[in-house]
């Protein structure tokens, strides 16, 4: 894994200053502690931080072809590069290294932009073709590897793996994007293509940006891939489990390639256990040492360590486990610094802990990320399917009238048993499919969110609605496949915006490469397009995956209750209410011009009373406070928005 950066001056033949490129690269040194490289020529400068994984001696970057025409700075892994290389060699291309990086250069020369369709893996890269005068910025299909960019005042484009790389350039504005802050408080993350900074954008997953020397204007990103939006026809349900196991096994084996130590994360869930089981079997077949598996657990009924230990013993993995210790109030500011912007998934804290544990033993780790999105494993998928069945039964006037009225009258019972907490269910039933699914994904609904805002910030939102992207995603799907539509919404929002941001930043913070076999794009295309009945049966998600792994994993794990990878933060926030109040009412929050002090303190006091559970929005606000408080330039709204 690596960090990339660069500056492209389309209209100026000047050579970018190496000091600027070096500063950008140094800001991301954790992404590549094994070396730094720079390349400069008229119009263009590229930087690279290297974490050596494959071809330790010959894979240094930026890498150029022997004729000097093509140069690339690349972050990621191309798992099919050996096959691709053989095809290119048969077409006359000559290679001088064993690296996957060089395969991208020759694929571009052979196929142009269509080379993106040939790449199987996770990647973000900048490829310069001096002969054509073209710069290609590209990001993998699912968004495993990040790429950010900003247009500078002189018209040039700067880009970097992380926001910190761009903030190393003083001319990049620190002004926050009000719409992105609204998205963050609604969803807990900032979806592509926005970032918390108005001047910095994220290249969306499955997109590329093609810039040309001498070209005026600002080209827009273009999509080269999207997840399936309708079910496949003629699927053999009886053969689906075996087909899934074969596909997942192939993806795991492809991602075992490494010239450095490799292990895997192991929780008490189906996804990571499936990956560990298949990886351990492949390792045994190769005659290698047992696979290292890593687990973080928290004492109590939800502790994942006993189940993970049982799986490790069953598959013959070498198990490493630790107890998690958390200080979420203290971690909030660290999370803001780690991510470079607000990030509201508090499971990032234990994820960072398991990354640290793994890095003491290996340089590469496999994870089970993506299984829930591809095979419908989230609880909200089950609820959405039930709601869709109810919508089909209840006439629209009844849902929008009677049910919606009941939802408005029903009290919030945060502390009651789950079966008494019907307000969210009634609320969803009173909405259409897209807005109902958004309501389940939303962390803090609109009226409660806006009540926290200062009038100026509320006005600066200019009607921005976080639900609009969910309506667009679900509207793009087959209306007769509501479960797949919900999955598509997750794959285009939650997966690249939350899950993969979390895993990339926490792993890269400790210089660990993380790989997700479930996100092999062929497996994603096949799995998402399976009929809903294979994914969700009798209220159990990932049904086909559980059947596929039935001979490999314990029945208790396969069919038991889902375990979440995070600690309970609600009790800590109640116990430390004075500290929490001081943080929310401190200068960072109030000087930003975004919030109403009284409303913030009311939220904290309601949580401290025990009558309400505001732990999630309070965590998000604490992370936002940490971002606003960070030096050297705390982001604030422009004066006009604060008026």
Please outline what is shown here.
This protein is of the alpha+beta class. The chain is built from 30 helices and 17 strands. The longest helix has 16 residues.
Low-confidence stretches: 413-423
CATH topology of the largest domain: the name is Rossmann fold
Overall outline: globular
Q: Roughly how much helix do the residues carry, as a percent range? A: 40-55%
CATH homologous superfamily descriptor of the largest domain: HUPs
Please describe the structure with a list of short key phrases separated by commas or semicolons.
alpha+beta; 6-stranded antiparallel beta sheet; single chain; Glutamine Phosphoribosylpyrophosphate, subunit 1, domain 1; Rossmann fold; 17 strands; 2 domains; 643 residues
Describe the structure.
The chain is α+β, with helices and mostly antiparallel strands and 643 residues long. Helices cover 44% and strands 14% of the residues. The strands form three sheets. It has a six-stranded antiparallel beta sheet with strand order 2-3-1-9-8-10. The protein starts with a strand and ends with a helix.
Secondary-structure map:
Elements: E1 2-8, H1 18-26, E2 35-41, E3 44-50, E4 63-64, E5 70-78, H2 81-90, H3 100-111, E6 121-129, E7 134-139, E8 148-151, E9 157-160, H4 163-167, H5 178-187, E10 201-202, E11 207-212, E12 222-223, H6 240-254, E13 262-265, H7 270-285, E14 292-297, H8 305-315, E15 318-323, H9 328-339, H10 348-359, E16 364-366, H11 371-375, H12 379-393, H13 396-409, H14 423-429, H15 433-441, H16 446-450, H17 455-460, H18 468-475, H19 482-492, H20 494-509, E17 513-515, H21 521-528, H22 532-535, H23 543-548, H24 555-559, H25 570-575, H26 577-584, H27 587-591, H28 597-609, H29 615-629, H30 639-642
Parallel strand pairs: 13-14, 13-16, 14-15, 16-17
Antiparallel strand pairs: 1-3, 1-9, 2-3, 4-5, 5-6, 6-7, 7-11, 8-9, 8-10, 11-12
Helix pairs in contact: 2-3, 6-7, 7-8, 9-29, 10-20, 12-15, 12-19, 13-14, 14-15, 15-18, 18-19, 19-20, 26-28
């Amino acid at each position: 894994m690596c960090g990339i950066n660069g500056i492209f001056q389309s209209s100026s033949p000047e050579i970018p200053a190496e000091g600027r490129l070096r500063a950008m690269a140094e800001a991301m040194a954790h992404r590549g502690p094994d070396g730094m490289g720079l390349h400069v020529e008229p119009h263009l400068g590229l930087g690279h931080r290297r974490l050596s994984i494959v071809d330790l001696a010959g894979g240094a970057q930026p890498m150029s072809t022997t004729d000097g025409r093509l140069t690339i700075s690349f972050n990621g892994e191309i798992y099919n590069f050996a096959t691709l290389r053989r095809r290119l060699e048969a077409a006359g291309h000559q290679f001088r290294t064993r690296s996957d990086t060089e395969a991208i250069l020759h694929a571009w020369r052979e196929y142009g932009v269509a080379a993106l369709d040939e790449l199987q893996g996770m990647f973000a890269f900048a490829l310069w073709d001096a002969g054509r005068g073209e710069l290609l910025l590209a990001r993998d299909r699912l968004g495993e590897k990040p790429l950010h960019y900003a247009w500078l005042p002189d018209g040039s484009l700067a880009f970097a793996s992380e926001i910190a790389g761009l903030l190393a350039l003083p001319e990049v504005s620190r002004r926050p994007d009000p719409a992105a802050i609204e998205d963050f408080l609604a969803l807990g993350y900032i979806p592509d293509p926005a970032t918390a900074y108005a001047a910095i954008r994220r290249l969306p997953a499955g997109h590329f940006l093609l810039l040309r020397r001498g070209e005026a204007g600002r080209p827009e990103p273009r999509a080269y891939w999207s997840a399936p939006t309708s079910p496949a026809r003629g699927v053999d349900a009886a053969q689906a489990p075996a087909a899934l196991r074969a596909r997942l096994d192939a993806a795991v084996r492809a991602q075992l390639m490494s010239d450095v130590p490799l292990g895997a994360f192991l929780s008490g869930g189906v996804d990571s256990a499936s990956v560990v089981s298949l990886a351990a079997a492949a390792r045994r077949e190769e005659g290698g040492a047992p696979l290292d598996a890593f687990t973080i657990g928290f004492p109590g009924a939800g502790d994942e360590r006993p189940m993970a230990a049982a799986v490790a013993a069953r598959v013959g993995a070498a198990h490493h486990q630790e107890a998690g210790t958390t200080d979420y109030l203290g971690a909030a500011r660290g999370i803001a610094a780690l991510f470079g912007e607000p990030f509201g998934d508090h499971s990032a804290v234990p994820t960072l802990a398991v990354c640290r544990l793994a890095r003491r033993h290996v340089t590469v780790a496999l994870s089970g990320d993506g299984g829930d999105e591809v095979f419908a494993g989230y609880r909200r998928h089950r609820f959405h399917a039930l709601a869709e069945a109810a919508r089909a039964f209840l006439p629209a006037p009844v849902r929008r009238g009677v049910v919606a009225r009941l939802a408005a009258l029903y009290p919030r019972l945060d502390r009651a048993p789950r079966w008494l907490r019907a307000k969210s269910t009634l609320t969803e039933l009173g909405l259409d499919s897209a807005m109902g699914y958004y309501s389940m994904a939303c962390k803090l609904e609109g009226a409660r969110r806006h009540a926290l805002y200062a009038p100026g910030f509320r006005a600066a939102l200019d009607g921005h609605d976080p639900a609009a992207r969910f309506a667009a995603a679900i509207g793009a799907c087959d209306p007769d496949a509501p479960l797949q539509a919900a999955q598509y919404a997750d794959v285009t929002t939650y997966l690249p915006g939350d899950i993969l941001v979390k895993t990339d930043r926490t792993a890269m913070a400790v210089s660990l490469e993380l790989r997700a076999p479930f996100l092999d794009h062929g497996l994603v295309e096949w799995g998402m397009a399976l009929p809903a009945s294979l994914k969700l049966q009798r209220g159990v998600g990932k049904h086909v995956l559980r059947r596929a792994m039935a001979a490999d994993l314990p029945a208790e794990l396969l069919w038991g209750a889902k375990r979440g990878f995070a600690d309970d933060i609600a009790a800590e926030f109640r116990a430390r209410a004075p500290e929490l109040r001081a943080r929310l009412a401190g200068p960072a929050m109030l000087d930003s011009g975004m919030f109403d002090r009284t409303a913030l303190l009311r939220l904290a006091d309601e949580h401290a009373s025990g009558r309400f559970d505001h732990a999630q929005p309070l965590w998000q606000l604490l992370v936002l406070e940490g971002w606003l408080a960070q030096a050297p330039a705390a982001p604030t709204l422009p004066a006009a928005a604060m008026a």
